[in-house]
Design goal:
Blueprint (H helix, E strand, L loop, with lengths): L1 E5 L15 H13 L4 E7 H4 L8 H16 L3 E8 L1 E2 L2 E3 L5 E2 L9 E3 L2 E2 L4 E2 L6 H17 L6 E4 L5 H5 L4 H18 L6 E5 L11 H6 L3 E6 L13 H15 L4 E4 L12 E3 L2 E3 L2 H17 L4 E4 L1 E3 L21 E3 L10 H4 L14 H6 L1 H15 L3
Parallel strand pairs: 1-2, 1-16, 2-3, 3-10, 5-7, 11-12, 12-13, 13-16, 17-18
Antiparallel strand pairs: 4-5, 6-9, 7-8, 14-15
Helix pairs in contact: 1-3, 4-6, 8-9
């Protein structure tokens, strides 16, 4: 199983491609490799790489190549978040992809590092301008880096699952097919991963993992560990095992796991629930992470991706998207000062014995009534696991 982590530099943050700090990145990647990670996931913010609908930024391309080289020197593989997309709770979007409208955006929307209060995005799944821009970046970026030894694949449109939920289903199926077609034509050797949320499997109208597979992509389950199940019980490893089993059954093969976040309380403080979010103390978080790693290995996950490299430094809390107080400031493997949280112990010690029964899913019966069968399977799984 590949162990990977979402990465933005601690100091530079989302300005990674605008203010490329080679020394900071080199230090971070060396530290990441030393902790036993094999891969990093990094967002390629669309506006940075394609500042105009018909123009690419050669400087960003050069910086991405330097990033890949630094990763290669540390033995790390890189997944590029292509056309980013939703990252850290905001939708980062190019200005040429927004149209004026008298209504607020569907999602927290950032354009040129500024919150947009009124307007609508040109939808990436259906808008002709966006589809044309997609092709340009495939022709230039994807084709250019197809043979780089550090590039392990792409994650098209990070936040895919959330964006897809607000779009007509057939349009998403068509976009998946056409996207994988153009990506395979440009770089057949680079797999493409699409993140799906567990709640999308509770409805027949959502995109399911087997449809991603049929389109030529790799489905991955994205799940928040701090509010795990439908009752928002935090740090519920049983829920992780259930969600992986259900997703694997519907995909017809094992799927990777992306942890969407585990905010921690400040060092030395107790766990607490605040504003609807559970902040675990570092010892509790480390124990939970060790259980999740053990479950992912047992379930045959091709990869497990942790949420983020480092907490957000307080001096950046006045900058979007971190100026809106939320748990994403506190989901790092490191503290904001660069010191390691106790979470790191989960990577360095023997894994605990975590044994949950594997869920058996009648996929035909499930597809007939996803909401009802989802709830029934969850109850069944809890009973098999001991209540």
């Amino acid at each position: 199983m590949i162990l990977g982590i979402g990465y933005l530099p601690t100091r530079t943050g989302p300005a990674l491609w605008q203010k490329f700090d080679r020394a900071e990145i080199a230090d971070d990647l060396a530290h990441i490799a030393a902790l036993g990670f094999q891969a990093v996931r990094v967002p390629l913010f669309w506006a940075d790489f394609q500042p105009a609908v018909d123009r690419i930024d050669a400087r960003a391309f050069d910086r991405f190549e330097r990033f890949l080289t630094l990763a290669q020197e540390e033995g790390l593989q890189v997944t590029g978040g292509l056309w980013t997309g939703i990252w850290d709770g905001a939708l980062w979007w190019p200005d040429w992809g927004v149209t004026p409208a008298p209504l607020p955006p569907h999602w927290p929307l950032l354009v040129n590092n500024t919150w947009v209060r009124w307007g609508r995005i040109r939808h990436p799944f259906t808008d002709e301008r966006m589809l044309g821009a997609r092709q340009l970046l495939v022709d230039e970026l994807v084709a250019h880096f197809r043979s780089h030894p550090a590039l392990s694949g792409w994650e098209p449109l990070p936040g895919f699952g959330r964006l897809a939920a607000a779009t007509e289903r057939q349009a998403i199926v068509d976009w998946l097919g056409s996207t994988n077609e153009v990506l395979q034509a440009a770089a057949a050797e680079c797999p493409c991963t699409y993140l799906l949320a567990i709640d999308a499997l509770e409805t027949a109208s959502g995109i399911w993992p087997d449809e991603v597979v049929a389109a030529g992509g790799e489905p991955s389950l994205s799940i928040a560990t701090f509010a795990s199940d439908r009752r928002r019980l935090p740090l519920n490893s049983r829920w992780i095992a259930f969600a992986l089993d259900l997703t694997r059954a519907l995909a017809g093969r094992p799927v990777s796991l992306h942890l969407a976040g585990l905010p921690t309380a400040a060092a030395g403080e107790r766990s607490e629930a605040r504003d609807g979010v559970y902040y675990a103390n570092e010892e509790e978080a480390a124990a939970h992470l060790a259980e999740v790693i053990a479950i992912a290995r047992q379930r045959g996950c091709p990869a497990l991706w942790l949420w983020r490299w480092a907490d957000i430094p307080e001096e950046r809390w006045n900058q979007p998207p971190y100026d809106r107080p939320n748990w994403r400031r506190h989901t790092g493997l490191l503290r904001a000062d660069g010191s390691e949280k106790k979470l790191v112990e989960a990577l360095q010690q023997p894994l605990p014995e975590v044994r949950y029964p594997e869920l058996s899913v009648d996929t035909e019966a499930y597809r007939a009534d996803p909401p009802a069968r989802f709830q029934e399977l969850w109850y069944e799984f809890q009973e098999m696991a001991g209540g």
